[in-house]
Recover the amino acids of this structure.
């Protein structure tokens, strides 16, 4: 985001977005692993397919947390 966009986002909005994104990540992981188990895929195979998405989400969460830190300080 740009500096202009940062000034219009409240800390509360960022905190809410971070919480929702964390819930999404957890749900994605849990549902994918449950589906893999039903399909009798190994955890290793499921994680190999899921890991790139988790890495992307983790990267975005880190950016949001950094933005939150800069907004509240």
């Amino acid at each position: 985001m740009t500096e202009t966009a940062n000034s219009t986002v409240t800390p509360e909005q960022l905190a809410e977005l971070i919480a929702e994104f964390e819930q999404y990540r957890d749900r994605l992981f849990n549902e994918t692993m449950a589906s893999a188990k039903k399909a009798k895929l190994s955890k290793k195979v499921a994680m190999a397919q899921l890991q790139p998405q988790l890495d992307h989400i983790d990267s975005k969460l880190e950016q949001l947390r950094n933005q939150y830190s800069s907004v509240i300080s």
Q: What stands out?
A: Residues 3-72 form one domain.
